[in-house]
């Protein structure tokens, strides 16, 4: 009996270990020092740098935008970055190591553990719980089938637009929101009449909006749907009260950093469907794309409906991969709607709304950001698939048949995870770096007194020209917050991507910089620096010294970087 218990525990240990390792590989190599400097794999050369800059700024006690000096943070969820800043302040562990090497494995392990605990408490089945945890860790799209047939290689994680499970940690606020979400449903399924537990649920659900706004919105919708379901079934108003409490806390937490919400989201029906088949970087079916648009513009509504319906089906099945089993289970359960429990209503609401929002809305600045609502749909469909598959396995008495089913699931689910790791995170050379010369310069600047830093404006054309020679320095990779992140100073203009997302007029400021630098008069440039309260100029040397810098105090120089100070 004891040996049997050991093996029962071993399957959980194995799935948690492999899941944690697979997820962590996307993070732990980035931010370490190599012979060429700091290396950054995947989107870490932009997204990771942004979070480090924001956390550093918060750790310094400032609520200003670290990359747009003089303006307060707005339209951004800072929950994860506040936690990161707090841990840094109390432990003195460098932010870069917390972000890339320490927090990711802890998050991955915790997510898997609470996923298992939640499903086990809900369904009272180890097999269902293990299967659900497997799909949360390893669920992937069918993009690998497309790339295998077209190019003879396995890849295509986001071919149908949505990122998949393996990339969870490259979006730490998303990962943290999953952990909080699993803790919420774990408490709900186990402590229905515990007042303290329900108060904790209301609090955690409320603060989700500041950790990941997409999660906060979906959880509120799910709680209200499940709460009204409980009212209809005459099981009391307890869950509605939790939902109301969560809504109040959400408003209190999001209001200080959110402005002009109506300008952040735009109604644009089927943008993801149209771009999926029209964009060469996605699925790219040009003939189908032309047919869709032509039928729509020509007013042929029946054919347009059929074309859009077909693309929607491709979009759903392609993104879900083997998790399509969970979607089928949802449809089947609709026939027995009266038998649904409040957990199922909560999950189904999140899944449906998580798909519908990106289907009809895009985000200003970065249109594809609303696809992040769908991440939570994929998450819960993974759980539903695990429950369904686990139930099927439990009914099989023949061991050989059980084993065959498990192998089949693994073969069709794992390719996305394996391909993403091999193609994008395991290669020795990363796509982006911060050179040793820049690290020395940024370290010098970090030790200087506080002041606003002017950096070179980002050139998209220069970055594209350098794309064939990785690892590219970050100033030739993407507009990022790296000077602010590694100097600990606020910059006048950096990371145009996040400035666009959060609604700042970075274009106007960029034009001001270009005009000031183009001036033949050093005095005009000095007037610009004085008017904008700029103290330092961090400059990448590309030939002759900028005429505008004449007369400024050069306080640091190496073969790549010069730093000037304006008093």
Layout of secondary structure:
Elements (H helix, E strand, L loop, with lengths): L1 H27 L4 E2 L2 E4 L6 H13 L19 H13 L3 H29 L2 H13 L4 H9 L20 H19 L4 H17 L1 H20 L5 H17 L10 E3 L3 H8 L7 H12 L3 H20 L3 H10 L8 H19 E3 L8 H24 L3 H15 L1 H11 L6 E3 L1 H11 L5 E3 L5 H6 L6 E2 L8 H6 L8 H7 L3 H13 L3 H10 L2 E7 L12 E5 L3 E5 L2
Helix pairs in contact: 1-4, 1-5, 1-18, 2-3, 2-4, 4-5, 4-7, 5-16, 7-8, 8-9, 8-10, 9-10, 9-15, 11-12, 11-13, 12-13, 14-16, 15-16
Architecture overview:
The structure is a single chain. By secondary structure, this protein is of the alpha+beta class. The protein has two domains: about 1-30 and about 75-395, no CATH class; about 430-565, no CATH class. The chain contains 24 helices and ten strands. It has helices at about 1-30, 45-60, 80-90, 95-125, 125-140, 145-150, 170-190, 195-210, 215-230, 240-255, 270-280, 285-295, 300-320, 325-335, 340-360, 370-395, 400-415, 415-425, 435-445, 460-465, 480-485, 495-500, 505-520, 520-530, and strands spanning about 35, 35-40, 265, 360-365, 430-435, 450-455, 470-475, 535-540, 555, 560-565. A hairpin with a 2-residue loop joins strand 1 (about 35) and strand 2 (about 35-40). Helix 8 packs antiparallel against helix 9 and helix 11 (about 270-280) packs across helix 13 (about 300-320). The radius of gyration is 25 Å and the shape is globular. The mean pLDDT is about 90.
């Amino acid at each position: 009996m004891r040996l049997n218990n050991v093996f029962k525990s071993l399957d959980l240990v194995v799935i948690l270990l492999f899941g944690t390792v697979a997820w962590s590989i996307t993070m732990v190599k980035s931010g370490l020092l190599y012979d060429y400097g700091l290396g950054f794999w995947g989107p870490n050369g932009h997204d990771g740098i942004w979070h480090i800059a924001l956390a550093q700024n918060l750790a310094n006690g400032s609520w200003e935008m670290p990359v747009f000096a003089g303006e307060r943070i707005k339209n951004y969820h800072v929950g994860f970055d506040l936690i990161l800043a707090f841990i840094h302040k109390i432990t003195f562990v460098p932010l870069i190591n917390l972000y890339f090497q320490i927090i990711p494995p802890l998050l991955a392990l915790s997510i898997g553990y609470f996923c298992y605990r939640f499903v086990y408490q809900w369904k009272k089945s180890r097999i269902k719980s293990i299967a659900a945890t497997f799909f949360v860790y390893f669920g992937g799209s069918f993009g690998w089938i497309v790339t295998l047939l077209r190019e003879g290689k396995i890849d295509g994680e986001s071919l149908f637009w949505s990122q998949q499970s393996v990339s969870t940690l490259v979006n730490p606020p998303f990962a943290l929101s999953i952990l909080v979400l699993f803790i919420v449903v774990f408490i709900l399924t186990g402590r229905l009449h515990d007042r303290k537990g329900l108060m904790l649920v209301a609090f955690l659900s409320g603060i989700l909006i500041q950790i990941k706004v997409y999660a906060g919105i979906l959880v509120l919708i799910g709680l209200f749907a499940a709460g009204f379901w409980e009212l209809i079934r005459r099981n009391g108003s307890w869950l509605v009260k939790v939902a109301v409490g969560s809504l109040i806390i959400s408003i209190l937490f999001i209001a200080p950093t959110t402005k002009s919400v109506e300008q952040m989201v735009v109604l644009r029906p089927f943008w993801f469907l149209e771009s999926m088949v029209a964009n060469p970087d996605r699925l790219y079916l040009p003939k189908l794309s032309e047919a869709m648009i032509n039928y729509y513009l020509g007013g042929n509504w029946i054919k347009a409906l059929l074309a859009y319906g077909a693309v929607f089906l491709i979009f759903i099945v392609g993104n879900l991969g083997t998790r399509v089993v969970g979607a089928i289970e949802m449809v089947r359960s609709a026939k027995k709607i009266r038998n649904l429990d409040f957990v199922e209503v909560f999950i189904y609401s999140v899944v449906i709304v998580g798909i519908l929002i990106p289907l009809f809305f895009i985000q200003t600045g970065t249109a594809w950001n609303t696809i992040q609502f769908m991440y939570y749909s994929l998450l819960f469909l993974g759980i539903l698939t695990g429950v369904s598959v686990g139930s099927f396995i439990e009914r099989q008495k023949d061991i050989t048949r059980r084993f065959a089913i498990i192998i089949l699931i693994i073969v069709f689910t794992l390719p996305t995870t394996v391909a993403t790791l091999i193609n994008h995170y395991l290669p020795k050379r990363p796509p982006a770096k911060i050179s040793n010369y820049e690290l020395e310069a940024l370290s010098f600047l970090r030790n200087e007194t506080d002041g606003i830093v002017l950096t070179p404006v980002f050139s998209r054309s220069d970055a594209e020209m350098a794309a064939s020679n990785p690892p590219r320095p970050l100033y030739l990779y993407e507009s990022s917050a790296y000077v602010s992140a590694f100097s600990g100073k606020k910059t006048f203009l950096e990371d145009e991507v996040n400035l666009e997302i959060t609604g700042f007029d970075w274009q106007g400021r960029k034009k001001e910089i270009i005009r000031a630098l183009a001036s033949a008069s050093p005095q005009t440039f000095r007037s610009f620096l004085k008017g904008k309260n700029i103290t330092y100029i961090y400059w990448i040397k590309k030939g002759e010294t900028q005429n505008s810098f004449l007369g400024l105090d050069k306080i640091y120089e190496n073969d790549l970087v010069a730093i000037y100070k304006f008093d």
